[in-house]
């Protein structure tokens, strides 16, 4: 009887969680549509779309300031998706030289890093022959002609800012540059990245993945009944139906898996739904990369580079009372995340399953922001801890030193500084103004030029 009650509670929780996520997704989608319709219906005259960053037909002056590239996280979108809605809540308007690429919202960290490279340099996305054969998708993807910053190289490096999984995408891209992993580009190196800033960046995985349906035994397979299974089914059907205007408005990024009804037919759909083919069968999607095991696997291959500046904003909305971790506020946490914060703070790794790394402790992973654990956001820790420094006041870390992960802990949930600017209030401007000021005034690969009659100390 008790077992039946437990299963009933779990199914009820799954139903409510799925419903909340579906309602929130519909809210975001309808907000974007309403914004576009209001511009179309009530604008006194037609508006010409303004390109945030560099116009595709021009090449920026190589002697001007380097661009700042904002990289979205899971379920995110770049400029050109969801109409006029901004993933970074309009932060890209704070600087004239900002790019907001649209990458796969559910594709793997590896695939997204490849897409980001070609978005900037130009050309057709090449996922690599070996990788494509191993995971069963097309080797080539979207064409960027010309690229958004084709002169990108060591002499014209880029500042990157990543939210959530976007931060790990930047790390993988920098490692690919160091490893000269792009065919036809033998001169790449890690110095193409001058700085990297993360907002709630996932560097060491998150226990949220296990709560949503990833198996803690291996960090790659899914539970048969879970939120992620519902997500998997929805994505497959969405891509298979292949409504052009809808996919142009929002795309999960699995075009290179050819899941459209035009290419796979009914039998292909059934194979995908049964888990025999597609990204979810091969594991070439983002959730396995966000488990603790998946992140450790990635971190095994990633370095911290001595000439790159690293700065992380760590979000946290928990506190301890009598040794128990609980949500820190009812009103400052988004309704979508309040229950998630509580769930993550109480999550325990199954006692009958081997821990993801030596000396793992549940209490280290209790503080969180509703999507990521605080321990995961500060700096790369597992399997090897990288050099880091905790920042309380920004003045404590000036001048910045390259090769060190500076991190600052701030109160907020995982989506505090994206999509809805009003939620963050004055902190929104403080955070993004600080990021852009650091990129423009405090981070240099070479010393700034000395003006006539002026000497630098």
UniProtKB/TrEMBL annotation:
Cellular localisation: Secreted
Main location, first listed in the record: secreted
Gene Ontology cellular component terms for the protein in this record: extracellular region
GO biological process: lipid metabolic process
Membrane-spanning residues: none
Protein name per UniProt: Uncharacterized protein LOC111496523
Organism: Cucurbita maxima
UniProt-recorded Gene Ontology molecular function terms: hydrolase activity
Positions of the Lipase-like C-terminal domain: 67-179
Keywords: Hydrolase, Lipid metabolism, Secreted, Signal
């Amino acid at each position: 009887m008790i077992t039946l009650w437990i299963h009933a509670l779990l199914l009820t929780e799954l139903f409510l969680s799925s419903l909340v996520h579906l309602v929130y997704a519909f809210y975001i989608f309808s907000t974007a549509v309403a914004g576009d319709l209001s511009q179309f219906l009530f604008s006194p005259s037609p508006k010409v779309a303004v390109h945030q960053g560099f116009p595709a037909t021009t090449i920026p002056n190589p002697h001007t300031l380097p661009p700042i590239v904002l990289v979205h996280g899971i379920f995110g979108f770049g400029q050109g998706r969801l109409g006029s809605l901004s993933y970074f809540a309009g932060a890209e308007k704070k600087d004239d030289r900002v790019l907001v690429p649209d990458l796969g919202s559910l594709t793997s960290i590896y695939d997204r890093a490849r897409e980001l490279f070609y978005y900037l340099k130009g050309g057709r996305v090449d996922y690599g022959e070996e990788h494509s054969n191993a995971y069963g998708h097309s080797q080539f993807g979207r064409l960027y002609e010309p690229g958004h910053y084709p002169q990108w190289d060591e002499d014209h490096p880029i500042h990157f800012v990543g939210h959530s999984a976007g931060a790990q995408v930047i790390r993988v891209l920098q490692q690919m540059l160091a490893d000269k992993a792009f065919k036809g580009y033998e001169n790449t190196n890690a110095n193409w990245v001058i700085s990297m800033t993360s907002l709630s960046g996932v560097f060491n995985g998150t226990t949220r993945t296990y709560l949503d349906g990833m198996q803690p035994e291996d960090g790659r397979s899914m539970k048969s009944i879970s939120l992620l299974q519902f997500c998997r089914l929805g994505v497959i059907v969405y891509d298979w139906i292949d409504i052009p205007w809808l996919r142009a408005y929002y795309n999960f990024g699995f075009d290179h898996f050819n899941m459209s009804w035009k290419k796979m037919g009914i039998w292909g759909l059934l194979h995908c739904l049964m888990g025999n083919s597609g990204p979810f069968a091969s594991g070439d999607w983002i959730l396995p990369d966000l488990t603790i095991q998946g992140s450790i696997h990635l971190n095994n291959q990633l370095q911290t580079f001595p000439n790159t500046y690293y700065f992380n904003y760590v979000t946290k909305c928990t506190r301890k009372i009598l040794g128990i971790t609980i949500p820190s506020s009812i009103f400052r946490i988004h309704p979508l995340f309040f229950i998630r914060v509580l769930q993550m703070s109480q999550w325990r790794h199954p006692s009958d399953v081997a821990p993801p790394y030596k000396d793992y402790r549940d209490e280290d992973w209790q503080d969180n922001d509703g999507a990521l654990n605080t321990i995961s956001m500060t700096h790369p820790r597992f399997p090897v801890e990288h050099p880091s420094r905790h920042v309380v006041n920004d003045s404590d870390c000036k001048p910045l030193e390259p090769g060190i992960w500076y991190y600052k802990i701030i109160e907020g949930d995982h989506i505090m500084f994206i999509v809805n600017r009003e939620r963050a209030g004055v902190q929104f401007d403080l955070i993004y103004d600080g990021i852009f000021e650091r990129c423009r005034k405090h981070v240099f690969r070479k010393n700034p030029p000395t003006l006539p009659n002026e000497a630098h100390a």
